[in-house]
């Protein structure tokens, strides 16, 4: 089994003159629950569609679980996919969805699918169009999990759900991960959902990867510094705000800060993600003395 769920090198997808994804170089470890976050239009869906073989790259390369996306039946069987709006076939019943899954997927787990449907209280003869948004999302997740993939890719599957349905979906997802040892890539613009479910994070902004790493490492290595205007700062600058007398920086830096004129504040994951979304280019900072 591959130790890398997804690897991209210089990956890009262009539509006309516009790149929906550009110069994406990324390595996502297998065996993790990976959150993919960014503003609308950042390239999240494009990256996931490239990963499942629904799109072909304009530039660069991408591999999933060591193989080219959708390059063979065996490669297709390794990856489960739940697209945006958790699509189901309105005219098919729940039972017909399960039959279709069994016909299309060689490793299909009928017992698992039927057990999940029963636990969710779904009737096998109920048409998909009669299901609530949360029930359709759960049916789509059932189809993805019962395929028995090594990697499950979910593209904002809970975006249209109410808070209760969203929580139930994510709880079911985490149970499936624990039970079946899935690798997961979950795209969402709701940072709170990713914080509850994921242990690895990728931030996409303006069609480029801005940040990737272990969730705990990301939170522990970013701080907010407030102090005298233009006093200089350690580490990598993420964002800066200034008044006439004070500067406030978000920086990536995990060492102790010796200068007592700085106030150091901790950041939530949402604070960090939002900082990368609003990141702007500034002149290189002056060096700041730090404790050794």
From TrEMBL:
Which Pfam families has this protein been placed in? ABC_tran
Specify whether ATP-binding is a keyword of the entry.
yes
Q: Signal peptide position in this chain? A: none
The record's annotation in PROSITE patterns points to:
ABC_TRANSPORTER_2 (PS50893)
Q: Which UniProt keywords apply?
A: ATP-binding, Nucleotide-binding, Transport
The record's listing under SMART domains reads:
AAA
Start and end of every ABC transporter domain? 6-231
Named from the GO MF annotations, one term is: ATP binding
Protein name (record)? ABC transporter ATP-binding protein
Q: Which organism is it from?
A: Solirubrobacter phytolaccae
């Amino acid at each position: 089994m591959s130790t890398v769920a997804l690897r991209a090198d210089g990956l890009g997808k262009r539509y006309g003159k516009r790149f929906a994804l550009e110069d994406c170089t990324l390595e996502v470890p297998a065996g993790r629950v990976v959150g993919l976050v960014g503003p609308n239009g950042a390239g999240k869906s494009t990256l996931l569609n490239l990963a499942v073989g629904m799109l072909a790259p304009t530039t660069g390369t991408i591999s999933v679980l060591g193989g080219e996306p959708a390059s063979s039946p065996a490669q297709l069987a390794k990856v489960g996919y739940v697209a945006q709006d958790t699509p189901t076939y309105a005219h098919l019943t729940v039972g017909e969805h399960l039959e279709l899954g069994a016909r299309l997927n060689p490793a299909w787990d009928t017992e698992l699918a039927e057990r999940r449907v029963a636990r969710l209280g779904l009737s096998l003869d109920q048409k998909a169009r009669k299901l609530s948004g949360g029930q359709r999302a759960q049916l789509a997740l059932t189809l993805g999990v019962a395929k028995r993939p090594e990697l499950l890719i979910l593209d904002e599957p809970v975006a249209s759900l109410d808070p209760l349905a969203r929580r139930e979906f994510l709880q079911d997802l985490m149970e499936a991960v624990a039970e079946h040892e899935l690798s997961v890539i979950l795209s969402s613009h709701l940072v709170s959902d990713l914080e509850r479910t994921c242990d690895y994070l990728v931030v996409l902004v303006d069609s480029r990867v801005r940040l990737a790493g272990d969730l705990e490492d990301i939170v522990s290595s970013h701080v907010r510094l407030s102090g005298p205007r233009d006093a200089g700062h350690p580490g990598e600058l993420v964002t800066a705000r200034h008044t006439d007398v004070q500067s406030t920086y978000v920086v990536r830096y995990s060492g102790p800060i010796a200068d007592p004129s700085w106030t150091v504040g901790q950041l939530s994951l949402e604070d960090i993600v939002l900082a990368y979304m609003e990141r702007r280019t500034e002149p290189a900072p002056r060096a700041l003395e730090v404790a050794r």
